[in-house]
């Protein structure tokens, strides 16, 4: 990269970074090829995605590429049959990849395990057999509530192999949140661990599952499989709970992959929407596999010798597409780490990069901001010369963090790929390739086959330099296949919640972000436009947080806004009206923060609580969060008004 400019000055969003000539020569997709892909995709998008699909193995090919006769509900590759796990594992063991590392795991205490493609294949088959033995059938859902352990990856792949949709719940969620999620998807089985290491301590996990299932409160669950990680005392309920090692020991290392319809569900994932309770998003075997494979191999320029480390927890979409499915489809080596990024000190991430020779490091701005605080002496303690590409996702990175990451981790030589996408999109949507020109803080341009626009409230494209709503204007293969509102299961709410995103501008998917395009057509993401907070790259709905607050006996009314946070990007601030007769106090604030932890788990970080006698409202009684936000940040309240009701 051209790093001749002064990296110290930060007022340089305008500076363009170019890839080193050697990198352009070696790239899988060079600038001419990228242009050709773009032209092909613009002219014949279905042909473009069909070629991408042809790179994978299918039991039966599609009748057509896209059925959009029931738009916005799309079916990609209708008539096709496949199994994503066949493409992640079976396909590779027929090739020279058989004995290549598929998975490297580093435990927080420094222990480590490695699986070749063949070993992972055998282990996944064993667990797939165990799931079948325990009575899990095609179409029945399995909850995976686990820390980053190899068995979590194995469980995901084993579920997919037998056609049982998996649903991961981040281990930072509380028993109550877990119970709700189990019930939402009517899970038959839960996979968990006795506990895990985090920041030098053992966190027990199995008791949280016991609490979630207490007294048959989620009686859809027949069995719980427990991985013996922390070796702590664990209560096991006879007839319900099984040790992982016991159930796999008796299984054979061969277990055929279920032949799935391309549109059969691969997984379900909860995420926060603009309204109400979290929604459940589903992805399928076929289109998801095609979209993720094509975009990940393009963006990260996967080479046979790569060691790919995406630091996301498995419980988010990033963990699905960029830790498990994408890297394994691409036949590369994926790395997972169990513990805290600062344990035992602030160089742990860099120690892991040098220990395994990581070549691609993909993370979130919040992690970089946290590590930046400790200074560049920590990365300097290690040899980071194996790194060739950096990536970021989850929230706007901003030029300052971009430049620190680029210089201190990437030596000013590694392209920094800022990828924009979502749980709903499944695959990367807007991102540079290693050969692209980069502007610090810009996600650059949509990938070939992806079409986006920035529009005003009437849906008309806005000119360069003006902010607007980001929309996706054409279907893409990894798009969600369903969005369910679990709280309203009766009455076809799944279709409504899906259609919600296409309702405002017919035919266009409303992403929920504010964005702007510059004179060169580069896109800049400015943040969420709706009532969704992005705390350290994790989505939390204001409605969800407010409901949890209201469940406390002292609280009459609650309004949540996002406020800027140096490390987390955004944090939640609560405005609370107390019930008559309840006196505000510091103890009450602490109690409310603990209450939120219990309701939702440590993911719900409440930065401030302020007591009010009243809250600003519309005439129809809706709380005007943007007014609170304007009071808090001093911004004009009109800024984010685009999604508010006219009244
Ligand atoms: C929201 C989606 C996809 C993995 C992580 C989050 C924000 C995502 C970027 C980026 C600026 C970004 C958006 C988006 N976001 N990537 N590169 N730059 N903002 O997935 O939980 O579904 O959240 O994350 O606001 O809408 P998610």
Detail the poorly predicted runs: 1-12, 639-647
Biggest sheet details: 8 strands, mixed
CATH class of the largest domain: Alpha Beta
Q: Approximately how much beta-strand content do the residues carry? A: 15-25%
Mean pLDDT: 93
- Radius of gyration from CA coordinates: 24 Å
CATH topology value of the largest domain: Rossmann fold
Strand order of the largest sheet: 12-11-8-6-7-14-15-23
CATH architecture descriptor of the largest domain: 3-Layer(aba) Sandwich
* Tally of strands: 30
Distance between the termini: 51 Å
Number of helices: 19
Structural class of the helices, strands and pairings? alpha/beta
Overall geometric form? globular
What do we call the CATH homologous superfamily of the largest domain? ANL, N-terminal domain
Ligands in the model, by name, code or SMILES, are: 5'-O-[(S)-butoxy(hydroxy)phosphoryl]adenosine
Q: Helicity range of the residues?
A: 25-40%
GO biological process, one term: acetyl-CoA biosynthetic process from acetate
Family: Belongs to the ATP-dependent AMP-binding enzyme family.
EC number: 6.2.1.1
Domain AMP-dependent synthetase/ligase: 96-481
Question: Quick summary of this structure?
Answer:
This protein has 647 residues and is α/β, with parallel strands linked by helices. It has 3 domains: 28-91 and 267-517, Rossmann fold, CATH 3.40.50.12780; 93-258, 3-Layer(aba) Sandwich (Rossmann fold); 531-633, ANL, C-terminal domain (GMP Synthetase, Chain A, domain 3, 2-Layer Sandwich), CATH 3.30.300.30.
